[in-house]
Design a protein that fits this description.
111 residues; alpha+beta; 4-stranded antiparallel sheet; two-stranded antiparallel sheet
């Protein structure tokens, strides 16, 4: 298995926005002709087995400000979607959203 670096969400633009922070994660597995064929026991496998699934899929997420100074959280569209998903937080509410996210982070880290 190898890691593949995915391009940032905004690389399609002629002038990428340097304020966009993009998160990516992808793995690619290519069979090697020298590797022995292994039995995957797929009859006994289930994606619902939380102990077996150690890395869950993560969509690309960008965070940046728009020309009005609002916070934009953008999820890259999936293969079966026509558009990206956008959440725009008014400038006056950015601190409230960040505080709520930090509260959730603290709760998650304390588990």
């Amino acid at each position: 298995m190898g890691l593949v670096a995915l391009p940032p969400v905004n690389n399609r633009d002629k002038h990428p926005n340097p304020r966009i922070a993009t998160l990516h994660c992808a793995t690619v597995s290519a069979p090697d002709s020298q590797d022995p064929i292994m039995n995957d026991d797929s009859a006994d496998f289930s994606w619902r087995d939380i102990e077996a699934v150690v890395v869950r899929q993560q969509d690309a997420i960008a965070v940046y400000s728009n020309p009005d100074g609002d916070l934009v959280i953008r999820r890259r569209r999936a293969w079966d979607e026509d558009d990206d998903v956008w959440i725009v937080v008014a400038q006056t509410q950015i601190r409230t959203v960040i505080d709520a996210m930090e509260k959730v982070l603290t709760e998650v880290q304390s588990r």
